[in-house]
């Protein structure tokens, strides 16, 4: 929660774009050649993945970002539920004709439930969050849970698979595609295994994943996204691609408190379906749920949206280190654990940027502004 002094002076700014400019952020106005991105996500309606979808759509509407598509993978929830939530998301935002939804991997490459159960029994700890494994796998549409405003009425999943879409997009725009990897890395691992020729054509991958020098969350040693499919994480991290990691090391320091929550949920001049869902589905312990009502110092972390913020404004990262990062995929207490090496790395690892601290006040302005803009978005001609 410690931003630079110059960033702290920007908290009072009401208009986020002005605040970003004044605080050293890059211009987020329309660009001649906006970054092209694929959002690879274990999507949900309006938790961190869904929030990133909203923010990306708003950036696309102002011409500063080009979202090629959303590729969905099992993680927070099963693939079928994630696809349904993503379809409704793009329809709700009014970008269903510009941003397609592509179904990807339903299971991790090798991390099955029997292994997870055995590890939990022998090595208990962590917060116990298992994502999709916490619920029965939906077998048909009748098993899906509708968002509060209902399922998508006319938006359909794309016929092309997520893996094929990643491959085709990278080949169509060589050297231009950034992948925001905010879920398990199964889709990316499959795409690069099946078509290794795309590896040198990917511009960069920005991850929310890993816990380098801090404890894990799902287990005492492992962060959820990389724990869910450690084989995929180990595979992708070793690819010779420019890579940036937003791990728990930084997300543990970017906290939502009651004041920030209220800026999104309770600004009477900026009420939309997004702010309503933010309150209805999350609450974050600030609206009638255990948390703030029993602890006035209660806070909660912000995760995936930091990847989009970093893409648009690398200057938001106030502390970074260059490390070689690896993931353990062996059975045991360290399954899914990430390790960063500052020197003498094991063979085959790639050096990458690991973000340690963020300019929180300026990021919060960026976050609130994009989540509270009018919807459906107004797309450029």
UniProtKB/TrEMBL annotation:
- Signal sequence span is 1-21
Name the Enzyme Commission number(s) assigned to this protein. Answer: 3.2.2.8
Among Pfam families, the record links this protein to:
IU_nuc_hydro
- Keywords from the named record: Glycosidase, Hydrolase, Signal
| GO CC list | cytosol
InterPro entries membership: Inosine/uridine_hydrolase_dom, IUNH, Ribo_hydro-like
Q: Where are the transmembrane segments?
A: none
The first-level EC class reads: hydrolase
Question: What's a single GO BP term from this record?
Answer: purine nucleoside catabolic process
> What are the protein's GO molecular function terms?
purine nucleosidase activity; ribosylpyrimidine nucleosidase activity
Specify the protein name: Pyrimidine-specific ribonucleoside hydrolase RihB
Q: Which gene encodes it?
A: rihB_2
